[in-house]
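the two lines:
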Amino acid sequence: MRNQRNPAFNLANGCALFAVLAVVLGMAAILCGIITVASVVRTPAGTPAPTQASIDLAYSPEKDALMQDIVARFNKSNFKTPSGLPMKINATKMDAGDMVEAARAGKFTAVSPDSSLWLAQIDAGRDTPLVGESTRFAVTPVVVAMWSDVAQSLGYPQKPIGWQDLLTQVKNDPNFKWSHPSSTTASGLLATLAEFYAGAGKTRNLTEDDLQNRATLDYVAALEKTVRYYGEGEQATIDQVLAKGRGYLDAFVVSERMVIYFNGKSSQKLVAIYPAEGTLWQDHPLALLEQPGLTDAQRLTYRRFRDFLLSSEIQKLVLQSGYRPVDLNMRLDDPASPIAKANGVDPAQPQTTLQMPSAAILDKVQSSWYLSKRPANIYLVVDTSGSMADQDKLKQAQDALSTFLDQVQGDRDRVGLVPFATTVYGVMPPKEIGAQRATLKNQVGRLAANGRTALLDAVSFAYDDLQQRNERDRINALVVMTDGVENASSIGLNELTQKVKRGNQSGVPVVIFCIGYGSDADFDVLNALANATGGFARRADPETIQKLYKTMSTYF
Amino acid sequence: MNRTRLIFFAVVILALVIVGISFLVQQLSGNIPSPTAQPIQVRIVCALPVEPWVQDAAQKFNAEKHTQDGRTIVVTVTPMDSVTALGKWDRGEFDPVPTVWIPDSRYLVELVNATYSAKLGRDVFLTDGEYRARPLVTSLFSWGIYQSRYDKLVAKFGEVDWKAVHDAATAKGGWPDLGGQSAWGYFKLIVPNPRKNAAGLLAMVSAAGEYYDKTTISTEDVTNPQFQKWLKELMDSVTDFSSLSSYTVEDLGLFGYSVGDGGQLLESDLLVNMQGIQTRWVEPLHIVYPKYLTWFDFPFTPWMGPETSASEKNAALQFEKFLLSTPIQSDAAARGFRPANTQVSISGSDSLFVKWKNQGAEAIVTRTARMHSPDRDTLQALLRWFDLNVAK
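prediction for all of em together
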């Protein structure tokens, strides 16, 4: 008997089959899609496709305007990698010490410090170098900037002037004020090296023995004793000289480019002295950092940016900014070139340079500088009024003060503490930092916010104490921080500023640096105090206070 | 059609659909070439002096879409100083292994072969046959000295050679003792750091040759305390061994006579930077060919290890041929190199050799005594001496 199929069964069977087919087809399509997508996102070599083509670049502060301009032009050019990823540069201004630290912590993919000296520090002690491809895009020699009449009194331009002449001048004229940045900056380190060379009577082959030789150390100490104070870098120095005029300093160590910058902005004229014994160069490298995870696309972006820096368009910009471009075919004696005698600089200089010692000797120069530099008496004048309890301000300030205490490296530097609220309390007189660091940090950690703000009484107290100590061979300074408005002192602002001005003329010069902490700080009062002594006032908030205290530490 | 057959056909259709969709999607995506269409990569690690020339040539070559076995050839060039590359070869650190190495000199190829012969019992770079190392261009080492300083040295010593330079470097009173100006300071020599640049090593070899007045030097020669004292005095007049520069002539140009009165440098670098140096420092360099000649010959050297396929080697040979072609060799001549292709002249009116003839450049060098490449042990001894006595 033939099996008669039930039409209803067949229909049901067909529907089921169709459904199975549809499901299978759907799954197949999904599978196919997965396979395709997986193959598309993999490169032919089987490695994950690059997804990152931007470069995080840290650069030195004194070329801020130039670098911002260059980066803006680059980013606007919409360069792309062959795979279509946009090439972008994210640039951050940073001083050398922080840059080295951040690079070693893996925070940047490229750096452009003011000198290749810092590249060696990035790689110091590493088995595998972090610094990869590098180039230079601008150079400028380190010079001693002087007011033109001061330079003429030393024989400029007929007679070559050297470090020896500077020493003679400061010995003969106790009112002669000069400075160089701290040896944690390139020009500061180069200036220190030049002093050690001059002290050893050499321009090459500086040895460890030279650095330990008593006569050399005495020479450097004698020169350093005349330094008004150090500082965070050449841009800050120039800004201060621009703001305060020739009374601020008679001579200071900066790059040639800064002399041009100053003369373009001031009616008073500086000239660049290229020390006769020889100078050194800032060479502004751009270096790729071989950080883990660096992609080929980022490498391409680095190279594109490098080529962009070396392009005619940017090299012209470099020259206009007062740097010497690395493109040798750009004429320094072109009428439009700022490297001209009219700007106080000489394109045919320097005639000779000092020999760059090995990294080991440079380290020792830096250590020896801490022994030879002008020691400081510093009072940290700290507001602990009730308002400091707001927004975690006191906690941030305590951390910042602790950083400051860590940063002061000279064993002969003395630091003291003057906390104040309604009155001055818990004073710790200045003592050698090596012996007092832990106690000071402990005391800072115990500060509590309470009471009103006797700012002027606190400043007056600390100022009087430094005057009574009468230690002229030291830098004497107050670092004053407040978050509010003076409302509890017995002395008035005018009375205090008059006292300070008189005291600085007849007694020991004391410099007051001020920090206006938060938006409620009375900045006018702080400015008046700072200006009366040749110091300066700056603003900070809980996010920036630590950095600002760290910056302040470079002045000692 | 019964149910089993239906299922069977469904499965077959399904398989066809899957294959079809996959194929279509891949074709339409256009991102992934099929394996057979993938380009052949020729990865070149290239010595720094010739890298810009090779890089430009590679761009032209890639644009012309040359093929090997039906696949497009893509040449990529990585700049690397030969001393650094030598270390990477020695330590087996290249990953991926380059298809071709263009070092500064053939003697570096021999040094790598010496290492691998000890490890593998065979050479990894060939010195004869189709895949042998072939020089692409040559550049001699010659003295480049600022004209004002050159004039004083010649007046004082009669000629410029390593012995005269040593005496200048050790003059106690500096330039005033040599007839120059006090503002010039001491005599300053430019020598590249031999740990970063093979030219520095060759400068020491050349100095040793003139010290002993012979063209072959040995380990015994370079470990002689008298020679080492003499060499140390010479090296003490170098202002900076920490420099970033790949090309030391760049230092001479950027920082002028302030960092170096002169040095024995690559002729091509001197010629190509001569105009820029004169523009920047308003004074030209003077070129002097030394008594015993040393040079870089930049050999094109395919890697013979198992990592390189026959197709890659043949693709590399195509690029080598391209580099040796007349137009590309002419480009090399315009950059101050002496072309390996003898059909390309360097005596024409537009030649840098002719342009700077009055400054001492010679298209045909009359001095022909050649300094021989020292063996590996001698070179290592020089480098060790440098590390312990100069770089410390």
